[in-house]
Design brief:
Layout (H helix, E strand, L loop, with lengths): L1 E10 L3 H19 L1 E7 L4 H7 L5 H8 L3 E6 L14 H12 L3 E7 L12 H4 L3 E7 L11 E2 L4 E2 L6 H16 L4 E6 L5 H14 L6 E6 H10 L6 E4 L1 H12 L9 E5 L5 E4 L16 H14 L3 H16 L2 E2 L10 E2 L2 H13 L1
Parallel strand pairs: 1-2, 1-3, 3-12, 5-10, 8-9, 8-10, 13-14
Antiparallel strand pairs: 4-5, 4-11, 6-7, 11-12
Helix pairs in contact: 1-10, 1-11, 1-12, 6-7, 8-9, 10-11, 11-12
The protein binds 3-isopropylmalic acid and magnesium ion.
Length: about 350
Amino acid sequence: MKSYKIALIKGDGIGPEIIDEAVKVLDAVASCCELTFSYEEALMGGCAYDFSGDPLPQETINISLNSDAVLFGAIGGTKWDNLPREKRPESGLLRFRKELGVYANLRPAVVYDELVNASSLKPNIVKGVDLMVVRELIGGIYFGEPKGRTQDKGWNTMVYTRDEIVRIAHQAFKIAMTRSKKVCSIDKANVLDVSQLWRDVVTEIAEQYPEVELSHMYVDNAAMQLIRDPKQFDVMLTGNIFGDILSDEASMLSGSIGLLPSASIGAKIGVYEPIHGSAPDIAGQGIANPIATIASASMMLRYAFGEIIAANKIDDAIKRALSEGYRTQDLAQFDAKEVCSTSEMGSIIANYIAR
Ligand code: IPM
Ligand code: MG
């Protein structure tokens, strides 16, 4: 029996509710696939600040690095918005990604057939969409120096080095090799020097992957193409801030941001989390959609543990719950046979796995 140690970071807002459902589903998959999971909880975000004065306590980094993977809920909330920047939950998250070295953020956007009507785009545009945003996560304008703020001036710097671009480009090409073998690299090379370097390096690395078709697109055009004809994309390779924006945009193809998982990987350990935030406005009401987090747990099984059968079981159970017409609030208007709570959705998915 294989056993894995998972660090659980529930975070703020709806984080605890959705992580609880993912754990329920993991436990169901454990008993049917002969796996054992042990969990260790760690604090991060606003709750960690409230508890210790630091949104990212050192203990959380230690627990994470001593685990086989991290399953992460969501952090942040208006309550902490007025703290000095380094005390804010978001700063904790950025430091966390940096400390763990998770430079590659994989954000798949898949449209479930059952939910083609849920997208704000026409069904024929979104039906069959299956793309992956590969976002560089620990560089670019989020981390570049110099940065600063005076009363009347604020500045940040977008910096990428060759090495940073090389490693994320390899990830994108490797992922493309397991998919439809197309990479579209997104930049703003018509204006930014950092983007011209990005484009040159990605083009160089592409030579090592002759089977993969590489194209380049300016980010403004990509934002437009993503809603004009999303099926043209397989892997979208981007830097940190462009990927942040485009992955939120891509999430709407699927109808709800509550559906989309992510994996952040690096040399040491992976962090698996839904792409949505902590939604403080609906926290504690039992209406959050746990599917993005459950699908993140599936990505953890697939990418961190290589437990493909177990991961497929989760993905199939999610599809089944949707095709049987179970919907959380966010998707209640779209062909729902039954509207269910956060924990009911978790139980339905867990039960399909057990059977
Ligand atoms: C995300 C989020 C974060 C980011 C925030 C919360 C710091 O929007 O994971 O996409 O900008 O990376
Ligand atoms: Mg974001």
